[in-house]
Amino acid sequence: MPSYKAPIENVRFILNEVFDVSEIAKLPGYEDATPDVIDAVLEGMAQFCEEVIQPLNLSGDAEGCKYENGVVRTPKGFKEAYDQYVAGGWMGVTSNPAYGGQGLPHTVGSVLEEFVTSANMSFGMYPGLSTGAIRAIEHWAPEHLKQTYLHKMVAGTWSGTMCLTEAHCGTDLGLIRTKASAADSDGSHKITGSKIFISAGEQDLTENIIHLVLAKLPDAPPGVKGISLFIVPKFLPKEDGSVGPRNGVMCGSIEHKMGIKASATCVMNFDEAKGWLIGEPHKGMRAMFTMMNAARFGVAMQGLGIAEVSYQNAVAYAKDRIQGRALTGAKEKDKPADPIIVHPDVRKNLLTMKAFTEAARALSVWVGMQLDVIEKHPDPKVRQEADDLLALMTPILKAYFSDMGSEVANLGVQIYGGHGYIHEWGMEQFVRDARIAQIYEGANGIQALDLVGRKLPQNMGRPLRRFFHPASQFIEAEMENPALAEFMPHFAKAFGKLQQATAIIAQKGMSNPDEAAAASTDYLRMFALVAMAFMWLKMVKVAVAKLPDANGRASFYDGKIKTARFFFQKMLPETETRFRTIMAGSKSLMDLDMEQF
Amino acid sequence: MPSYKAPIENVRFILNEVFDVSEIAKLPGYEDATPDVIDAVLEGMAQFCEEVIQPLNLSGDAEGCKYENGVVRTPKGFKEAYDQYVAGGWMGVTSNPAYGGQGLPHTVGSVLEEFVTSANMSFGMYPGLSTGAIRAIEHWAPEHLKQTYLHKMVAGTWSGTMCLTEAHCGTDLGLIRTKASAADSDGSHKITGSKIFISAGEQDLTENIIHLVLAKLPDAPPGVKGISLFIVPKFLPKEDGSVGPRNGVMCGSIEHKMGIKASATCVMNFDEAKGWLIGEPHKGMRAMFTMMNAARFGVAMQGLGIAEVSYQNAVAYAKDRIQGRALTGAKEKDKPADPIIVHPDVRKNLLTMKAFTEAARALSVWVGMQLDVIEKHPDPKVRQEADDLLALMTPILKAYFSDMGSEVANLGVQIYGGHGYIHEWGMEQFVRDARIAQIYEGANGIQALDLVGRKLPQNMGRPLRRFFHPASQFIEAEMENPALAEFMPHFAKAFGKLQQATAIIAQKGMSNPDEAAAASTDYLRMFALVAMAFMWLKMVKVAVAKLPDANGRASFYDGKIKTARFFFQKMLPETETRFRTIMAGSKSLMDLDMEQF
């Protein structure tokens, strides 16, 4: 069975040395988020993940969720673990203190999301979905609904879901058929229709489940401009806040999935269920995007979380498994064979995992900090800039991290050889669990379209500048820094190619949108690699500065520099190919007739 | 549930137009393999695969194999399907007529392996393992053992296995602990030990199971030079050829695997089981490689087979699923949305699948033909050349095809979106089934080492010339061919880089073997891409020539040219990055200390 140790030393390095989380703590409302408090939260969550939910991961996968007559049973131990999660106050870590939350920065919250996924991705789905729902209700619901729902949801005794997809539409929500009646005298609407792929739509963990449901009002214009968002509780709350009669919503079945089997994926049937409008009529998509952006960032963290745990176990196995001899002569002569970590190709796989995971964590903290700036910074210009960077980077993180989560998990299986393919060793579960992250919350192809079609042109390229400016400035400031000499020319070159690709996509895409779309996935990947290189440079700069007086930590800093070297020599060159395939344009894709496929 | 139609038109194109299978039919012993016969065999197998085993694929995965007290039960329908397979004479298609086989060329046999995998990879494991065992027995066993076993095995009423791996050793077989006693008076040995990961080690399909087992004789030298190969039947054959008393071999349990769940993967315990030596004492590895090379080629065909079926279903879904609108304006205005195949990125995924599958089939036929030349050609020089090409290309096909099988299956899931993640749709099963092909019969990292460490230096680079010569000759002959003008410079450039990489690896690897090993996986992939480009050029050449008089087939040939264009513009450029990362050398991999991982 795999093991997991939360990577606290690496997290501290990113939060405190590469970035400065104490800057976030200076924002109004975050005064309590001192380094001590953050440290205690990290350690508390690490312990919960390592001791409570990680031991349930493999058994949860084997057992899965069970469905009978509308009732869903989560695997053995999940209810108890969830109760501990609630008792520890973990549900409300980043939520508004007005509703009982601890109001800690999202920067910290996203690190916790990584830990939870590493330990038990399926378990993490339950609080994860609630977080999105809480955010949407807080943002869009009228005060009386907030008062009714948020305290319970922040406490974790009630949970939340997002009900978007229907059997015939996922990406294209304009096609939804779920209907909402005109408002009744009490202000509620009757919701009727069927939703699929609803994570945590039904479960046995919480006393109530609060669904956020997209539906069409009677006077709705066609398409996405006619969608409204409703709050539909499983049980109707009574005046005193306790749970009242059952509402007209039932789980019809659960899916048999490739992975995250301990997370219930439900068909939810609404039959004249009472619902309350949140946000404006027909403007539900806007409200839904409040959830969606947070959810996309959360999915990125899932990719990182799976990569981290897969890496940890792959390293342990590679050091432990003896098989064959080093090509340059036996390394451990007293043993019948050497550990497989002596082999260059095994190291290449391990370093790919490590180089991704560490830079991705840095990138996620940089982007995650923007969430806090957006919410708390007094200066609207600074808030706008943070919002722009977040908008730009969200599709990149969602797609690249989830693609790499799968890639890294597969490398982990490969290092285990035949044992990697066997359930009991746990490595193949990471592959199956990770796979969904490339699909849900907007498949990765959609993320790439969002990047080239929406984020690049947005406000005349304003979001783009939030990455291009700091990258340019870094090049200008550090180009002659001898400590970075081996890296900077490669970074400048890759960044130059990214700028060139950006200009060409913008130009060609104007006359033919298929040109931008044809380039989109290659462009997103290229962008991500340049952003990762940027993070490695930031880490190297710190490591070089600290190394002379590092004493016991010298190996740690030295390891960062060596891993950066690997990234620049073995991973960044992928940008060359991506640039070439972007330049090749859309013609070879669009030329085939339907019947030639 | 997925569907499958054997790609007979594409197979005929490769067998008859791109290559000339009638040349193989001219080899002594293949006189009966006329185009008509081959066509009938292809169509018969297509029908069996489409109608008998494909419908059992999804249910076989859901049900899996069951183990109880040493007995293994295959999923519902497998026994009946296997009986039909035997009744149809399919087991013996390529086997020696002296033992009841049909003696058809291996070129045809490998196409059939593709079909079987597409329809039901798990099912294919049962006859697949037998094929390897038959080959090894025919090659190495003394005549009386051949007479005892081969007729039954070729008929399919008895099956075969390969028992190599033990819990503590897979790649490094020198570490095995299974023991063989000195020969008893009847010439048999007592075999004692435990083997794991034995595919088809126990099942309910055949009346006897013939294990080929690696074990160490009492006087064995240490390491791989002390391993002998034994034939160990589950039931000891009686004089009359019928099944006699149970031998001391038992299945101890079966594995719970990520995929190929309908294929029983067994722990096999040998307790003083009677076994007979085949091949020379202590030279079992050589005999084992007779099976292994065929098995590796078979694994390559599995990668292709999964890619083909995944592609077929992805295309069907992309044409059927309506969602959103084409970016350049609605394509099907009468429908609420356009099919997703209008989108450039969906087409890019489909074309990646298609461009791989079609060129891989061509490459497999080219390499597969060498198997027939090796066995039947009267000229030893020609046989040697065929053997060299096969030796060179086997690790490339095994690793690249199986890597791409997984990659393509994952693209198939992605095209289905959320439905791709659900068992009932069948696409995620392809991912899980395909994954093992990257691991077994030598993990792909081992294939890459075999390529750079063994095949490149072998006989002063002689095997290498069997690819480099025809590629050079093609460039010389076709460089000025206007019909290939858009492709040839790119091919020449990529081939030039491959030659350059080869020279540098050979040179650097001489002084430091870690240098060759560090480059190995990138080099294998680069080699594979160049070989695929070579196949596309051969196909384009035929298509261009036939197009003017093609009439009803014009779209078919035109589709080949367009797909080649996609390959050259979007897939071949990967060689650039691979060249760069090869050149970066081993230092960034080897520099990290153990504790820095």
TrEMBL record, chains A, B:
Domain Acyl-CoA oxidase/dehydrogenase middle: 162-272
Domain Acetyl-CoA dehydrogenase-like C-terminal: 475-593
The protein's Enzyme Commission number: 1.3.99.41
UniProt keyword annotation of Flavoprotein present: yes
Catalysed reactions, as listed in the record: 3-(methylsulfanyl)propanoyl-CoA + oxidized [electron-transfer flavoprotein] + H(+) = 3-(methylsulfanyl)acryloyl-CoA + reduced [electron-transfer flavoprotein]
Keyword Flavoprotein part of the UniProt annotation: yes
Swiss-Prot/TrEMBL keywords: FAD, Flavoprotein, Oxidoreductase
The protein's required cofactors: FAD
InterPro entries associated with the record: Acyl-CoA_dh-like_C_dom (IPR025878), Acyl-CoA_Oxase/DH_mid-dom (IPR006091), Acyl-CoA_Oxase/DH_mid-dom_sf (IPR046373), AcylCo_DH-like_C (IPR036250), AcylCo_DH/oxidase_C (IPR009075), AcylCoA_DH/ox_N (IPR013786), AcylCoA_DH/ox_N_sf (IPR037069), AcylCoA_DH/oxidase_NM_dom_sf (IPR009100)
GO molecular function, one term: oxidoreductase activity, acting on the CH-CH group of donors
Coiled coil ranges: none
Acyl-CoA dehydrogenase/oxidase N-terminal domain span: 40-156
Acyl-CoA dehydrogenase/oxidase C-terminal domain segment(s): 283-451
Pfam families: Acyl-CoA_dh_1, Acyl-CoA_dh_C, Acyl-CoA_dh_M, Acyl-CoA_dh_N
Function statement: Involved in the assimilation of dimethylsulphoniopropionate (DMSP), an important compound in the fixation of carbon in marine phytoplankton, by mediating the conversion of 3-(methylthio)propanoyl-CoA (MMPA-CoA) to 3-(methylthio)acryloyl-CoA (MTA-CoA).
Family according to the record: Belongs to the acyl-CoA dehydrogenase family.
Protein name according to UniProt: 3-methylmercaptopropionyl-CoA dehydrogenase
UniProt organism field: Roseiterribacter gracilis
Lineage: Bacteria, Pseudomonadati, Pseudomonadota, Alphaproteobacteria, Rhodospirillales
